[in-house]
Amino acid sequence: QVHLMESGGGLVQPGGSLTLSCVASGSIYSINGMGWYRQAPGNRRELVADITRDNSTNYAGSVKGRFTISRDNAKNTVSLRMNSLKPEDTAVYSCNVYGSTLRHTPFVSWGQGTQVTVSS
Questions:
Q1: What is the overall mean pLDDT for the chain?
Q2: How far apart are CA 58 and CA 35, in angstroms?
């Protein structure tokens, strides 16, 4: 099994910054994609940003230019630096990772989610 541990959520004022981190552990042979999703109350879960093994990135239009996703392949971690936060960024942010296990079977894992609240 593959376990994800997220950290870094919290309360921040509009215009502030936060960094989310996610560490993958367990029966991992390789990790292909890593990403962050978010879900606000009453809304569907949406992709915020993702990054491939060769560091190709993809961002939601609403966060482009404000958020930066990065990964450390040696440490099986993915981070999301969030700048110029807006109240509409308030949501539960979840990490998503997919790849292959030590048994060479595919896996897709989700973190438990971390709350980000942007409010004055």
A1: 97
A2: 9
